[in-house]
Specification:
Helix content is about 75%, strand content about 0%. The chain is mainly α. Strands 1-2 form a two-stranded antiparallel sheet. The relative contact order is 0.12.
Length: about 325
């Protein structure tokens, strides 16, 4: 059984509204995550175990389990475990690329053990995801997760190519978000059940999740986000709040992001917020969640599964409200 104290409130709401099968199944995922971090050398195992134990929202494995339903069984648990391993691997690698000192308010592997060790931990988590699926011949899951992993890599490359470019378009930003975030949410739903409308549901809430995460980077506060305000700006990552703010205040595009320090980044966040851009981006995210929930009707889902998936979609918004 998943410990409720370790689960964020939006996910707790889903678990509380579900039948007993869902908390039990999510608990099996947690146990498999712990198992996958063991036995690969003391140092790597410790770092991988600490990364997984740091928790998180577990939204992607939750989507796998919900789309698979009560009859999903061990195959759904493996797929849910594998997608969380891939997700955690990308976070460890992101922290290396960003030189991030904190993740969820805790020191990153890169900060405590160095970049090389962090890369190795991320590689281990990636490899364990595919090894778990391969050991049981889950070829469809391997194919879906491999496709999503390629999209993640392409999205990261696009973000690096766009670094410090305040002139990027909204379309380019959304394409990047679809590859870096939306694709893995889409993959989670399809791993659970191969229905196109469910994949579209996942992609929409993934985009909403990213938009709201980008709002939080500007709005803070650090005690809520686990990182300083404007961390993305300091990394040169141009997000939708900046793009929308520049429509109201074109001089924003003239700011040299590479010249910002932490104090200047916080002041720039205030300038972005003053344009009303954060409310506009939140509204966009809400419309994406509404569109996502409509996809559940196309998937002809009803009863408990539909209700719980709607709660997941609402939780994406509640997490950032």
């Amino acid at each position: 059984m998943t410990r409720r104290s370790s689960v964020p409130p939006p996910v707790t709401a889903v678990l509380d509204a579900s039948s007993r099968w869902l908390p039990s199944r999510l608990g099996e995922v947690e146990e498999q995550l712990r198992e996958q971090s063991r036995g690969h050398g003391e140092l790597l195992a410790a770092d991988a175990g600490a990364t997984l134990a740091a928790g998180g929202k577990r939204l992607r494995p939750l989507l796998v389990l919900l789309c698979a339903g009560a009859d999903g069984g061990e195959e759904a648990v493996r797929a849910a475990t594998a997608i969380e391993l891939v997700h955690m691997a990308t976070l460890v690698h992101d922290d290396v690329l960003d030189d991030a000192p904190l993740r969820r308010g805790r020191p990153t592997v890169a900060a405590t053990g160095g970049r090389g060790r962090a890369v190795a931990v991320g590689d281990l988590l990636f490899s364990r995801a595919f090894a778990l699926l391969a050991a049981h011949g889950d070829t469809r899951a391997i194919s879906l997760l491999a496709e999503a992993s390629v999209a993640l890599a392409r999205g990261e490359l696009a973000q690096r190519q766009d670094a410090f470019d305040t002139g990027i378009s909204e379309r380019r930003y959304l394409e990047r978000c679809q590859m870096k975030t939306g694709k893995l949410f889409e993959c989670a739903c399809l791993l659970g059940l191969d229905v196109e409308a469910l994949g579209a549901f996942g992609a929409e809430i993934g985009l909403a999740f990213q938009l709201l995460d980008d709002v939080l980077d500007v709005s803070g506060p650090p005690e809520r986000t686990g990182k300083a305000r404007g961390t993305d700006l300091l990394d040169g990552t141009v997000t939708l709040p900046l793009i929308v703010a520049a429509e109201a205040d074109p001089a924003i595009r003239d700011v040299d992001l590479s010249g910002l320090d932490s104090d200047a980044a916080e002041s720039f966040c205030d300038r972005i917020a003053a344009t009303g851009a954060l409310d506009q981006v939140r509204t966009r995210a809400l419309s994406m969640v509404t569109a996502a929930k409509q996809k559940l009707n196309e998937a002809q889902f009803d009863g408990e599964q539909k209700h719980l998936l709607e709660l997941v979609a609402d939780g994406v918004v509640q997490r950032y409200s």
